[in-house]
Amino acid sequence: MAATNEGGLITPNTLKGFRDYPPELAIPRERLMETARAVYRSFGFAPIDTPALEYLEVLTANVEPGAEIGKQLYSFTDQGGREVGLRFDLTVPFARFAAQHIHKLGIPFKRYHLGCVWRGESPQAGRYREFMQCDFDTIGTTSNAADIETALVINALLRALGFTRFAIHINHRQLLNGVLAEMGLAERAKLVLRTLDKLGKLDDAGVIAELTSTDPRHAGLSREQAEQVVGLASLSGSNDDILNTISARHGANESVARGVAQLRELLAVAAEAGVPEGTIRIDPSICRGLDYYTGTVYETFLLDKREIGSVCSGGRYDNLAGRYTKQSLPGVGASLGLDRLLAAMEALGLLPKTATPAPVLIVQFDAAYLGQYQRLASQLRAGGIGVEVYPEPRKLGVQLKYADARGFTLALIAGPDDFARGMVNIKVLAQQTQHAVALADLLPSVQAALQSTRPDQPQERSHETAKPL
Amino acid sequence: MAATNEGGLITPNTLKGFRDYPPELAIPRERLMETARAVYRSFGFAPIDTPALEYLEVLTANVEPGAEIGKQLYSFTDQGGREVGLRFDLTVPFARFAAQHIHKLGIPFKRYHLGCVWRGESPQAGRYREFMQCDFDTIGTTSNAADIETALVINALLRALGFTRFAIHINHRQLLNGVLAEMGLAERAKLVLRTLDKLGKLDDAGVIAELTSTDPRHAGLSREQAEQVVGLASLSGSNDDILNTISARHGANESVARGVAQLRELLAVAAEAGVPEGTIRIDPSICRGLDYYTGTVYETFLLDKREIGSVCSGGRYDNLAGRYTKQSLPGVGASLGLDRLLAAMEALGLLPKTATPAPVLIVQFDAAYLGQYQRLASQLRAGGIGVEVYPEPRKLGVQLKYADARGFTLALIAGPDDFARGMVNIKVLAQQTQHAVALADLLPSVQAALQSTRPDQPQERSHETAKPL
User: Quick one: A317 and A177 in the same domain?
Assistant: First the structure.
């Protein structure tokens, strides 16, 4: 922890569970965020922002006494004697925001929100007390068109981030709800869901055993009921097979029929909109958010990194802001697991190893030519190429070592003789090769040199998971 | 304030001094931020991020007892019994970050950092308790090249944001320091600066009166000394005139000579790098940061909105992180006043009045064609055009009213007959005109329609301040 040491210095440390983002992490994270924003915007989702601090009462409106999240909340009394807290997610502030402004905003309202949230959890590998959330939602409509669009956005997001090998798993809460209602078990839905959620960890028999347990914490189904429920959740096969089987078994139930129809429409529209076959998979086993979701639910898995869990999840809910307004605000949305994706991309070797956002370093070979170096830099920047000019006229070796360490792609080197001849040298750092080009052709020459250093095109790699950012 | 009202509802409110950003403000703010990031990156500044919460001891390392900032700091004891606080600027976290990581980062190190900071100030018009800072710095070098680049970055930032009518005022602390040292008044520099800082509010005579006051809170100069100091700070004319005058009067002093030489180099390199004549103005009256800066200082004014003060300010400092490390880290940097700029652009009418980030709304004329609408939307998005598909098949009038209210530019309307003919209708909302185009030509047709709605080009407007974002 922070402490004053003998020299009167304060030890520079972050708080436990918090982290800094140095350039090699901040650069790809920022690109992830900008890509996500661009995709959201391209679908007409508008950005909003809300304060980090809120009235404690607003934050805890839906928190049950003793709930974990209540203990994790950072709260305190401010200078004005107000009880305040740091937001622990972006959903609660969005509910407060919607209740406060929806009369001006109008419906339907589509927003995205990228922002940090804070939870005083016990830190563990990959979990931090401050992390970024990246949500998008459509509220004020019950139309299945919004549910369908949610799947299209998830598909567009993952592809824009460079992934091709992923699957969006989709389920509909009304399927299980309908089946349970048929059995006269509607009021036990929560307990059933809680057990079904363990399908990944327990096998079918284990789940059936828990569903039939007479322990009051469990659902207490009959063996036949439990088998029906597990049979539904364990269905596999093609999307059509699964939906046809559910229809044949439970299609007489109105909820089930509506759920199946909505999923069928989703698949049909997604195909027409160009989502590749196999990307969207009907998966009756996914539950998500035990109490909150009421219709379509979504989880997204990287096929080559499934063990990290869903990287984009969400669903449809009946009412966003019932604690703050009497206006019913149904909606549907999902959240991109930005930090989780970043970790996955790092593990898959998809992140460029660089600590500079600019690919070109202009060596300051001779201080008298600083104006020339800056003029060349301006020309390249105007052509869309990031350029750093080394700030000191140090030895060439020192500057090139710096260029290597930071991960620059090219170094431009020019001294008085070069300028006199109207030439500049381009050094391709990874290849340790150097060639002279005419100053008059600088931009196209640098573009060509950068192009030549790009890795092979994706289609030439047989087992590629994704293009690097 | 938040309160539970009679219906058991919690009143949805932000805290006093905090604000929400609805889309019409969040859209231009996000564009400002993205533009700033792109400019920083193009000069090789790398992003970093640090936590919102820090050890209180880290935050207050440089805060003198009783200082205003100490009272404004949001601090509390966390769940683990640690004294923590919300950062009140990005400089202190950068100092802590640099001290902690510089051995791995290496020098020179160039970073930018966009992030919110929190100060419990008395809220007043345009000032909030949570606001965005947008800093860039080069540390680990005393080279004037970094000072020069700082001016180039400010110029590039303002131009990228669409401003042409602005001025970067530059001064050098060594000018006044040298003059005061000549007079044997080096130790009174702070008091002199504090009075000179009032030159905007007081006239020369008022400033001279305060400089010569024998009140111990003032500098207590002789009348002749005060006149020399005010004479220096009040110099006007061309950059050359000012520097020549200073040189002639005080050039024998080494500090003054060095300051003048560095400013001359800055002007020469900036001109060579393409900064337009008149953009950079030597201004011996600017002080900035009474204790902190030691060399070049910068302030930036919008010529048509000078009253809002400097929109980008900074300077050179001798040592960033002396409270946390023995390693000396000299540097230079500046901070873009993002929220101030946003307010100025709003006042100057430079912000587009829109609550949608996508210019095109596809009307859901017939629910059976949802797949077609989404397919058209995908085509346009692939061409770089943002498109929203209305989620419900409501009456055309309702959907067009929504399009107008949100600020869409175009509405695309197509029903069964149109699809049968292979046509779609483009409605230009501001002009209330509509024309049919072939589905096969959709992208170029929409591009042309968007182009036709753009305002006149800047060069056709005589008194324009800036292009809209």
Answer: yes
Where in the sequence is the domain holding A411, given as residue range(s)? 360-453
Is A73 exposed, middle or buried (CB count within 10 Å of its CB: 0-12, 13-18, 19+)?
buried
Token pair 């919102």 is at which residue?
B52
What is the dihedral sign for C-alpha B250, B254, B258, B259? negative
Residues B231 and B111 in one domain: yes
Question: Looking at the complex, does the CB of residue B43 fall below 8 Å from at least one CB of chain A?
Answer: yes
For residue range B290-311, list pLDDT tens digits in order: 678 999 999 999 999 998 899 9
CB contact under 8 A, B370 and A269: yes
Whether the pLDDT of residue A149 is over 60: the answer is yes
Q: Which residue, B281, B314, B347, sits at the end of a domain? A: B347
Non-local CB neighbours of A253 within 8 Å, separated by 6+ positions: A178, A179, A181, A182
What span, in angstroms and rounded, lies between the C-alpha atoms of B138 and B46? 10
Neighbours of A58 (CB within 10 A): 25
Please list every residue in chain B whose beta carbon sits closer than 8 Å to the beta carbon of residue A378: 152, 273-274
Residue that wins the pLDDT comparison between B84 and B122: B84
Model pLDDT, residue B349: 85
Mean pLDDT highest for which of B186-195, B301-310, B405-414, B448-457? Answer: B405-414
Residue B12 CB neighbour total at 10 angstroms: 23
Q: B281 - beta bridge partners?
A: B169
Is residue A192 included in any domain, yes or no? yes
Query: B311 with B404, same domain?
Result: no
Mean pLDDT across B323-345: 93
Count of other CB atoms within 10 angstroms of residue A367: 13
Interchain pair B21, A71: CB under 8 A: no
The answer to whether the CB atoms of A1 and B53 lie below 8 A apart is: no
Average pLDDT over residues B327-356: 90
Strands A410-413, A360-362: pairing is parallel
Cβ distance A23 to B326 less than 8 Å, yes or no, reads no
Q: How confident is the model at residue B197 (pLDDT cuts 50, 70, 90)?
A: confident
Q: Do A272 and B372 touch (CB under 8 A)?
A: yes
B23 touching chain A per CB within 8 A: yes
Average pLDDT over residues B317-325: 93
What is the reported pLDDT for A459?
35
A2 to B55: CB separation less than 8 angstroms, yes or no: yes
Q: Give the closest-approach CA distance of A250 to chain B in angstroms.
A: 26
Does the CB of A187 have a partner CB in chain B at under 8 Å?
Answer: no
Q: Is B319 an 8 Å CB contact of chain A?
A: no
Quick: pLDDT tens for A400-452: 999 999 999 999 999 999 999 999 999 999 999 999 999 999 999 999 999 99
Q: Provide the β-strand partners of residue B331.
A: B139, B317
Name the residue with higher pLDDT: B125 or B262. B262
CB pairs under 8 A between A and B: 336
Residue A4 has pLDDT above 70, yes or no: no
Structure tokens given for B241: 């005139």
- The answer to the question of residue A63 being in a domain is no
Terminal Cα distance for chain B, rounded: 36
Residue A467 has pLDDT above 50, yes or no: no
How many alpha carbons fall within 13 Å on the CB side of residue B197?
Answer: 14
Residue B108 DSSP one-character state: S
Is B386 in the same domain as B291?
no
Question: What value does the mean pLDDT take over residues B169-180?
Answer: 94
DSSP A122: P
Using CA atoms, how far apart are residues A343 and A346, in angstroms rounded to an integer?
A: 5
Measured between beta carbons, the chain A residues lying within 8 angstroms of B44 are 356-358, 361, 386-389
> Which pTM value belongs to this model?
0.93
Question: Does B68 contact A at CB distance below 8 Å?
Answer: no
